[in-house]
Amino acid sequence: MKYLECYKEGCRKLAEAGVPEAQLDARLLLEYICGTNRNDLLVRGDREVEAEKQTAYETAIAKRAERIPLQHITGEQDFMGLGFRVNEHVLIPRQDTEILVEEILKDMQDYERILDMCTGSGCILISLLHYNNWCEGVGVDISPLALQVAEENGQRLLPEEKRPVWLKSNLFEKVEGKFDIIVSNPPYIKSEVIATLMPEVKDHEPVNALDGMKDGLYFYREIVRVASKYLNKEGKLYFEIGHDQATEVSELLKQAGFKEIHVVKDYAGLDRVVYATL
Ligand code: GLN
Questions:
Q1: Which one of 4, 20, 191, 224 is separated from 215 by 20 to 30 angstroms, measured CA to CA?
Q2: What is the CA(118)–ligand 1 centre distance, in A?
Q3: Across residues 162-176, what is the average pLDDT?
Q4: pLDDT tens digit sequence for 48-62
Q5: Which are the contacts of 277, defined by CB distance < 8 A and separation ≥ 6?
Q6: 8 Å CB contact between 250 and 194
Q7: Does residue 140 sit in the same domain as residue 44?
Q8: At what angle do helices 22-34 and 3-16 cross, to 10 degrees?
Q9: Which domain holds residue 43?
Q10: What CA–CA distance (Å, rounded) separates 42 from 21?
Q11: Which atom of ligand 1 lies at the shortest distance from residue 121's CA?
């Protein structure tokens, strides 16, 4: 079959299955399998696709039609210009989270100690360490399977001297020492909302990376409660938040004695990041 025909067939099947952005995903999967890029569709649509690749493409399209996330099929997601490996044990890095990383980078300096609580794929911590020098990082997660992914990403994306320590711990249970920056994009979706999310998320992403318990604020409360013990003087705590959580999370920080509480919006104009200084 010709390249353009494969693509059109892919579009049709994904649209039929109700996949959002069917055309985009059909193209990205074809490029992933053929090792091509966007230009191929524009100028080389009439080239023949080898039978093997066509079969592989059909398999990938069938998976995507079952609402398996694109990133679970390709095994990768770009974040902050770095290619992260992902699987079903970690949250797929989101573009929104780049706002959090960029906000930290504005202020971060060399030689700082950084803790990433609920590190998942390690995307936040690895990006921060990539764009700075001589920093020490600790990435914490309760899931050993997530930590395996984080560790692999660290090995692939960072030179040895920049790699963090990965720590399996229930929040701060096993954490030692003090930090200049604590960052967390914790699970923050209310338990009852999870069933209403799109199938890619609710059926394929780890529920323990999503579920923020009854009011969605469980992890903010737990982290804020003890964070001051783990922060150096003038240390900063950065959170990604849900769009409707800025007031409550700011209030938690205020009550715990944090100052200079800031809320940062994402590109959609929604509250996305809250940070404060001890
Ligand atoms: N820190 C990871 C991320 O931002 C995982 C977050 C999570 O599992 N809630 O992608």
A1: 20
A2: 6
A3: 98
A4: 999 999 999 999 999
A5: 234, 235, 236, 258, 259, 260
A6: no
A7: no
A8: 140
A9: 3-66
A10: 18
A11: 2
CA-nearest residue, atom 5 of ligand 1: 120
Provide the residue type at 157 as one letter: L
Same domain, 58 and 179: no
* 173, 205: one domain: yes
- Whose Cα sits closest to atom 4 in ligand 1? 185
DSSP state, residue 212? -
Q: Into how many domains does the chain fold?
A: 2
Q: What is the pTM of this model?
A: 0.95
Ligand 1 pocket test target in 79, 91, 213 with most atoms within 8 Å of CB: 91
196 CA from centroid of ligand 1 (Å) = 20
The string of pLDDT tens digits covering residues 129-143 is 999 999 999 999 999
Q: Could you tell me the pLDDT band of residue 243, with boundaries at 50, 70 and 90?
A: very high
Where b means 16+ CB within 10 Å and e means fewer, 207-235 reads: eebbbbeeebbbbbebbbeebeebbeeeb
